[in-house]
Write a structure and sequence with these properties.
Layout (H helix, E strand, L loop, with lengths): L1 E7 L2 E6 L9 E10 L2 H9 L19 E2 L3 E9 L11 E4 L2 E3 L5 H4 L4 E3 L11 E5 L3 E3 L6 H4 L2 H13 L7 E5 L3 H12 L4 E5 L3 H10 L3 E3 L7 H8 L4 E6 L4 H9 L1 E9 L11 H7 L2 E4 L5 H12 L9 E5 L4 H11 L5 E5 L4
Parallel strand pairs: 11-12, 11-14, 12-13, 14-15, 15-16, 17-18
Antiparallel strand pairs: 1-2, 1-4, 3-5, 3-9, 3-18, 5-6, 6-10, 7-8
Helix pairs in contact: 4-5, 4-10, 5-6
């Protein structure tokens, strides 16, 4: 079968691979659709970031070269003898996080984690082995194409939960890339009445409006971004989400938030930034972070997306073949700001 295999920086090859033996607690998933994540793009442009190269991953045993892809949906083709709650033909969403499973669910991911598709073979192929613990049932009538967006949506839902957002509150989102616009959609589902998206790209701001933002701000078109936010939300936002990963937006997120409001860092910062704690203390703002999601959050996201309470369809901007994953996938995401979520259609392979 064909797979998109990471070998090195700007070296992802579509090549023939063999499915590894299926373990007793695993199922074989026939992949329907798989999304290209921002972390996949980082691995393509500047990796290895998460992909293990010098030695096998501690939790999964995987090592480069490996098949990428951690945002995917599919249908179970085969079940191992120890699998109890799934059967052949079930439609499934895959939670790609692999953890030690020792701590409570809310702390588990912070005790060390790996990812299917980044530390072991993933979903940019026709068939993949997935442990039963990483599977979630989908309604059979629900679109497997839309289901491929559940994983990044879970990141957004977890961010909303970290902010302890309540009905009627007001938020600002710095960064209107794929995760940023999904945060807008999740905030809308959570009952936010003002959702301000901030980005330098007019194309991305239009996407944010389509996904649930009520207002948008392009910093290049206003003299003072924070003042523009407070003109829309007098007194400051109840919660701000930093999804851009740069120093200016980190500082603006603090300044745009009301006293005792929350700033949630959602983005992966490519390099360290400087931080003056007094900016935070004088503003009376609470700072928190989020990485991935809990199992509870993933299950909640499956329900939110499959019921239509979070409309993910607008985030999908292109559907391509596996053979064109480099040119129409990674390279397109690098150069074309109109792209949000690009899916690989493996349903016919």
């Amino acid at each position: 079968m064909k797979a998109a295999v990471w070998h090195g920086v700007k070296d992802v090859r579509v090549e023939d691979v063999e499915l590894k033996p299926t373990k007793s607690n695993e199922v074989v998933v026939r992949v329907a659709y798989a999304g290209i994540c921002g972390s996949d793009l980082h691995e393509y442009l500047e990796g290895p970031v998460f992909i293990p190269v010098d030695q096998p991953d501690e939790l999964t045993g995987g090592q480069a070269p490996l098949t990428m892809g951690h945002e995917f949906s599919g249908i179970i083709e085969k079940v191992g003898p120890d699998v109890a709650n799934f059967k052949v033909g079930d439609h499934v969403s895959i939670n790609p996080t692999v953890t030690k499973g020792i701590s409570s669910d809310d702390l588990d991911v912070y005790d060390g984690y790996s990812f299917i598709g980044l530390s072991t073979d993933g979903g940019f192929t026709s068939y993949v082995n997935v442990p039963e613990d990483n599977l979630y049932h989908l309604p059979e009538e629900f679109s497997l194409k839309l289901a491929a967006t559940i994983e990044p949506t879970a990141v957004a839902v977890q961010a909303i939960k970290e902010a302890d957002l309540r009905f009627g509150e007001k938020v600002v989102i710095f960064g209107a890339g794929p995760i940023g616009v999904l945060v807008a959609a999740a905030a809308k589902a959570a009952g936010a009445t003002k959702i301000v998206a901030v980005d330098l790209s007019e194309i991305r701001l239009r996407k944010a409006l389509e996904m649930g933002a009520t207002d948008v701000i392009n910093p290049s078109q206003v003299p003072d971004t924070v003042a523009a936010i407070k003109n829309i939300i007098p007194g400051g936002a109840d919660a701000s989400f930093e999804v851009a990963g740069v120093q200016p937006t980190f500082e603006q997120a603090i300044d745009a938030t009301r006293p005792r409001g929350s700033v949630v860092i959602v983005s992966i910062f490519a390099k360290p930034i400087s931080f003056n704690p007094m900016q935070l203390m004088n503003a009376g703002v609470k700072l928190t972070t989020t990485i991935a999601y809990s199992k509870e959050t993933f299950q909640q996201t499956v329900a939110l997306v499959s019921s239509g309470q979070i409309n993910v369809e607008p985030v999908i901007t292109d559907t391509i073949s596996l053979d064109s994953i480099v040119s129409d996938g990674f390279e397109s995401l690098t150069s074309d700001k109109s792209q949000a979520k690009i899916l690989i259609d493996l349903s016919k392979d």
